[in-house]
Structure formats: structure tokens, C-alpha cells
Amino acid sequence: MAIRGKAHTVGHHIDTDVIIPARYLVTTDPAELAKYVFEDLDPSLRQRIAPGDVLVAGENFGQGSSREHAPIAIKGVGISCIVAVSFARIFYRNAFNIGLPVVECQDVQARVSEGDELDVDLATGVIRNVTRGETYKGTPVPEFMLRLLTAGGIVGYVRAELARERQ
Amino acid sequence: MAMTMTEKILAAHAGRPEVHPGELIDCTVDFLFANDITAPLAIKEFEKMGVAQVFDPDRVAFVFDHYVPNKDIASAQQCKITRDFVDGHNLPHFFDVGRSGIAHVLLAELGYVVPGDVFVGADSHTCNHGALGAFSTGVGSSDLAAAMALGRLWLRVPESMKFVFHGRPRPWVTGKDLILKVIGEIGVDGARYGAMEFCGDTLTHLTMDERFSITNMAVEAGAKNGIMEADDVVLEWIRPRARRAITVYRSDPGASYVDVREVDVSTLDPVVSAPASPGNVVSVREVGGVKVDQCFIGTCTNGRIEDMRLAARVLAGRKVHPRTRLLVIPATPAVYRQALDEGLVQIFLDAGAAFSTSTCGPCIGGHMGVLADGEVCVSTSSRNFVGRMGHRGSKVYLSNAAVAAAAAVAGKLVHPDEVVRDPVPV
């Protein structure tokens, strides 16, 4: 699975409150949530994001609340993949469960600038910076998580599990 | 193989003799729940999974706590989705306004979680229940939906870290201060993906209420779960409440830990997390004098009866500063009633505090105490991220209930000693 998109960079320890403030958690609609994504971090960020773009972050991206509304809002605004130094655990699960791939990569945040064109290979974890002609070695997405993505997220996975049990 | 408590519980629920950190396992779940914010999304996903009923109606609860009593039409619509689902599926464990409380406090109080459990909740502070010697962790709505359908969940076995608390805490130092101290030391991702095991002689001085506030905040260090051994204090507390059989697991002497930290609490002063990270921990004396607009005592971290008592000890015979607001919100109807019976509510009202029915409201800047630009709040909650309790220009200091009450009286951050020279028993 490969993804190509323009990078948008954010910092370390981006928490779910600045991704989608709790005051907007009165809907589960991705388009509605996308209207407020990153509101308390940088309200102009969502206007710069085009469908297919890649979000680049530092350590511990998505810390805090278990609100799945956070990855839904990010996916809803058009982000196709998040590459970060590390992810908070609940966010990591939530992202794959809703079919938003995320990749861990040590070098990416320090090397990538806003607007760089990135190629992300999920299976190998290799990220190519087309703009700068550089390559970064991230962690390959675990096989189980790739299966989740292929199944379209946890819903597809559970449907397959139930079908297997019924056989 | 020597295993930690966490590994033993997970192995038992994965049907394996042993598990190792890093392994992916499929785990049976003893009990699960969602709240009014996470349930509608879980229900939406559950309904796409092609199953007619939840795996076991007796092991599923829905607890309304965040935006209740409903703050607006949108939140009322969200609650209605869950009410309709509960009615349609005849689910017996449903907690609505008046009978509901903050889920983590309520479900523990009512014995829905017992030592040895694997407990899963669509709320990050589900790690709360580790104080009972259970494996308890927060997940998102879709994971919860999967567990509702299958009765099990995939988990990565976490590496364990051990925190050994030594010494007797000084006056006004509580379990909250201990966990803030730890988070300040290891950072907000210091235990990322891991299990935080808490032990040491200090625990014998801590009641269940204080222990819960320690495991409750494990997620603030990035942990999957926080856990303590089910000792006599736990067993005495849980036995009259337990709805299922109790299994006590202890970590083996040779169990492996990625890190072991010794924490001397005997010299610790009350601490606060300064804005805007739970990891930004300093002694309250270092930030003394910071002017405070609002104080909030409540939440799943510190809305229990002992927090109410501690606040009352500071507030008895005193008044909230004229330029400061104090909100006191007991976590459950039982805590509310007990505070009433013990005369604590009278003390709060006499002091000029607002006292309310249970809700998470202020903690998430949702309703009941939202902050304006530039305002400062001292809160007994667990998170002080930018915009957490209101305007992105507001600031939150996290503290124990005594520090929050003292700040309300002084109108500024102070050590409780400065307000209460001679503690009056109430």
C-alpha cells in the first residue's frame, strides 16, 4: 500500500483536545467534525489541507482522550496518512480501526518541511521525500494492522471474524 | 516463566499458560462500557458489523456522564441514540440522569469490576480500575463495538514498569500528588504502550479513593493500564460490592520490568501540573501567588467522598474569595448523598461554592463551568491541555482537592497550610 501527498507538519505531544475540542463532540459525522479539526492548535491548518495530504508529527501524537472523533476528523478533512515519531496508543488503534493508516518514523519530523511531497510505503515503512530527494526508514506497519486496513477497518475485520466463526 | 500481574491476567483471558510483552493476543473481556459521547459512535459501528445482539447483555453498560443533564439539543440527540439502542436490545445496565454518575467511579462503586478482570471502556480513564487488581484499559468506540460484538478484543501485551512508593505522605499530600509526581518524572509518554505497576509501603497508608486517583491517571503517562495488587484494603472494599468472582493475581518475584522507579513520598509537598501538560509538575509553593478565577473539585480522578471531605476540611468556616468561583461536583449519586449526610454540602454552600449533580462537564470544557480567554482554573481533574476547559487562552493547574479548595479561599495558588493553620475536623 503506497500513499503520495503533500506534507503538513505539527509538533510533539499533539493531544486530542487540540485535534478536536470536546465542545464539538456532539456529532459523529466526519464532514461536520472536519470543520473544527485542529481548532485549538492552528485554526488555519484545516484550510491548507487538500484531500490526500499527509500529516507529519513529532512524538506521542494523539495523546489524551479515547475520542475516535479525533482520527475521524483528521480523515474527514482529507488526510490520507499520518507519519509521526510516535503515537499515543489509543489514537494508534483508533486510526487503524477507522481505516486511517499511521506510520512511525524517527527522522520524519526533523527532516520534512511543510509542503514537501511524500511517498509513504506502509508495508516497508519507507518514506520518500520527493521534494528533497531523501528517504527515511520508518517502522513497517505490522501485518495485523495492514489486515485491518485491507478489511476497511475494524468493522470489516469483525464481519470476517464472525463469518469464520459461523463456518 | 515469571510474570507480572498484568501478564497473568492477560494470559488467563487469552487462554494461554503465559504471554510475553509485545505479543498480540485475542483476549476475552469480562465487562465493557461506553459513555454518552463514545456510545453513539460505538453503536453506529456495531450496527455495521452484522450482529443482532451484544455478546452478553449482562456484561455491557452504558453510562451517561459527559454532557448530562443534556447541555443542548445536539447532545440530547446523541443520548437518544443510546437510549433507543438500550431499549431495542433490552440491555439491563444502563445509567441515565439522576441514577448515573461519572462512569469510572460509578461502575467500581457498584461492583461491575472485580480483581482479576479484563475490563474495557470507551473512555481513556478506564485505566482507573487497575487499583482493584484488574486489567482495565480505555479504547475507542470502534474497538468497543468490536468487543460488544465478539466479547473479546485484540491487545498487545504491554511491557511493565514498576513504581515503588516509600514513606508516609505528609498532611495535604494525597494519591493525586503521587501520580502527578510520577508523571512529572517520566513525562506524558514515559509509559507509552506500557503497564504501570504501583506498589510499596506507602500504599498501606492510602485508601481506595486515593489509589483510584493514581491508576486513573496512568493514561496521562501514556500507559495502557495502571495496576496495583488486590491487597486487604482492596478486598475489604470490593467484597460487599462484587458482582462476579474475584481472582487475585500477584506479580512473581522474578517478573521482568523495563524500568523500576523508587519514589520517596515522605518529603513530598502537594504538587500541581502547570499549564498546559499533565507532565509539567511543580511543587505548589513554586507557583504560589498565581491568581485564580475558578476552582473545580470533581471528576473521575478526584470526585470521590474523600476528595469531598478534604475540600470540606479546608472550606469549613471559610469563604470562597470574592473574585473566585468554586464548583464542587461529586462523582456519583452515592458520593452526593454521603456528602449530604456528613454535612459537607452545608460547608460547601456556606463557603459560597456551587454544588451540582454528577457530570464530567467542566473537565472537558463542555458545560457547567467553561473558562473564558485568559482565565485560570485550579482543577482536580486529569488534563490541562490547551483549550481543555474552555477558551484556548485559558489555563488549568491540576491539583488535589485540598489545593483546589485552598486556592478558592485565597483567590490564588497556595499551599493548603497557608489557609488552614489548624485543620478543623469535620
CATH class of the largest domain in chain B: Alpha Beta
Rg of chain B computed from alpha carbons, rounded to a whole number of angstroms? 21 Å
Low-confidence spans of chain B:
none
Structural class of chain B: alpha/beta
Sheet-strand content of chain B, in percent, reads 15-25%
Largest sheet of chain A: 7 strands, mixed
Classify the helix fraction of chain A into a percent range. 25-40%
Annotated CATH architecture of the largest domain in chain B: 2-Layer Sandwich
Which properties best describe this structure?
heterodimer, A: 167 residues, alpha/beta, Aconitase, domain 4, 33% helix, globular, B: 426 residues, Aconitase, domain 3, 2 domains, five-stranded parallel beta sheet, 30% helix
Description:
The complex is a heterodimer of chains A (167) and B (426). The relative contact order of chain A is 0.18. Chain A has 8 helices and 7 strands. In chain A, strands 4-3-2-1-5-6-7 form a 7-stranded mixed β-sheet. Chain A is of the alpha/beta class. Chain A has helices at residues 16-19, 30-34, 45-48, 69-76, 89-97, 108-111, 143-150, 154-166, and strands at residues 2-9, 54-57, 81-84, 102-104, 117-121, 126-129, 134-137. With 426 residues, chain B is of the alpha/beta class. Chain B has 2 domains: 5-263, 2-Layer Sandwich (Aconitase, domain 3), CATH 3.30.499; 272-419, Aconitase, domain 3, CATH 3.30.499.10. In chain B, 30% of the residues lie in helices and 18% in strands. Chain B is built from 14 helices and 18 strands. Chain B has helices at residues 5-14, 39-48, 73-88, 103-109, 141-150, 175-186, 208-216, 232-238, 299-302, 305-315, 333-341, 344-351, 401-410, 416-419; strands at residues 24-28, 31-35, 60-63, 93-95, 118-122, 135-138, 152-156, 160-166, 195-199, 225-227, 259-264, 271-273, 281-283, 294-297, 325-328, 354-355, 376-379, 395-398. Chain B has a 5-stranded parallel β-sheet, covered by helices on one side. Chain B has a 5-stranded parallel β-sheet with strand order 16-15-14-17-18. In chain B, strand 9, helix 7 (208-216) and strand 10 (225-227) form a beta-alpha-beta unit. In chain B, helix 10 packs parallel to helix 13 (401-410). The longest helix of chain B is centred in the first third of the chain and has 16 residues, at 73-88. Chain B is globular and about 60 Å long. The relative contact order of chain B is 0.14. The model of chain B has no long low-confidence stretch (mean pLDDT 97). The interface between A and B is large, with 41 and 51 residues. Chain B: One of its GO terms (molecular function) is 3-isopropylmalate dehydratase activity. Chain B: [4Fe-4S] cluster binds at residues 300, 360, 363. Chain B: Its EC number is 4.2.1.33. Chain B: It catalyses: (2R,3S)-3-isopropylmalate = (2S)-2-isopropylmalate.
